[in-house]
Write a structure and sequence with these properties.
By secondary structure, the chain is α/β, with parallel strands linked by helices. The protein is 39% helix and 16% strand. It folds into two domains: 8-170, Rossmann fold; 185-301, 3-Layer(aba) Sandwich (Rossmann fold), CATH 3.40.50. The strands form two sheets. The protein has a seven-stranded mixed sheet, sandwiched between helices. Strands 9-8-10-11 form a four-stranded parallel sheet.
Length: 311
């Protein structure tokens, strides 16, 4: 996914992406390595995905609410030596790390990107859930990790072929053990180009609501990468609550919503949704499953007209 237009994320975070690539490179990550990412929708997760892609490494993206035995399976199946994890997962990782080949765990907090009052509240509320031995040198906090790469002054990113693997996702496991889904740079970029050609009314500076999680192809491919192909801004929602949908829409006024049918069911139940003026919305796209006609008709009453594009 290395070829992008000037984008909101990269104009704001380009130096952070470069520094993160230095830091991952310094702890031993190289072309072809598979780094496991156990994160919700946060800036640190996206910075890491593009930083690792810059190196030529592969991101093994995992659901952060997975049980510890599932985490062990996902990590061991690809033989990851490096993990980026939300702090709330560190107790589980600490329990299984000796049964893996993991040499370094970069610990990120959802509070990193919060304003001070919210950051303090997050830290106090989740303190008991973030337990690992501070003497275990395998664990390193995100801030210290990023700082460690600053002393590297020059780095030449890999010039990958567009069809090489970029991301590994995991199926829902409805027919047994979850299966690994390998996605290439070409698949992400092709979908981005197709979307730009299809959704002609989108322009630089538009906002896409990133409610769908990055550990799903729809969330990472559309709400993130496609968004950046437009030069749009991806509004990251780390933890979505249906009853807050109305307030989220009022606050961010997204010009595009991408969602599965259940998200539009949540839209109907959201508090205060009847008071939302949807004139800011250009597109409401439904995918991942068929959109029942009765649900589509109910959503239209709110002023939103979801459709499934033929891309």
């Amino acid at each position: 996914m290395p070829k992008w237009q000037p984008l909101n994320l990269f104009t704001k975070y380009s130096q952070k992406i470069i520094k993160a690539s230095y830091s991952y490179n310094k702890i031993g990550v190289k072309k072809g390595d598979i780094v496991t990412i156990i994160m919700p929708n946060t800036p640190e997760a996206l910075i890491s995905i593009y930083a690792l892609n810059r190196i030529g490494a592969v991101c093994n993206v995992v659901h952060p609410l997975s049980a510890k035995e599932e985490l062990k399976l996902y990590i061991n199946s690809v033989e990851s030596k490096v993990v980026l994890a939300i702090d709330l997962c560190c107790t589980k990782i600490s329990d299984i790390i000796n049964e893996t080949k993991v040499e370094k765990v970069v610990v990120a907090s959802a509070g990193n990107s919060m304003k001070l009052p919210l950051k303090l509240g997050y830290a106090l509320t989740n303190k008991s859930k973030n337990c690992y031995s501070k003497r275990d040198v395998r664990f390193i906090k995100w801030a210290d990790f990023i700082k460690s790469g600053e002393e590297i002054n020059e780095y030449v990113p890999s010039n990958e072929e567009n069809n090489e693997m970029a991301v590994i996702l995991h199926s829902g496991g409805t027919t047994g053990v979850p299966k690994e889904i390998m996605l290439s740079n070409k698949s992400f970029n092709s979908f981005g180009m197709q979307s730009v050609l299809t959704l002609r009314n989108v322009s630089v500076g538009d906002r896409i609501l990133a409610i769908l999680p990055i550990f799903h192809g729809f969330g990472l491919g559309v709400c993130v990468h496609v968004c950046f192909c437009f030069g749009a801004c991806s509004v990251l929602i780390p933890k979505f609550k249906a009853d807050e949908f109305g307030s989220i829409l009022k606050k961010h006024k997204p010009t595009m919503i991408f969602g599965v049918p259940t998200l539009y069911e949540g839209l109907l139940k959201a508090k205060g949704i009847e008071n939302v003026d949807f004139s800011f919305l250009k597109y409401a796209i439904s995918g991942g499953d068929s959109l029942p006609k009765p649900l589509e008709d109910k959503v239209k009453v709110t002023g939103v007209e979801p459709r499934t594009p033929k891309i």
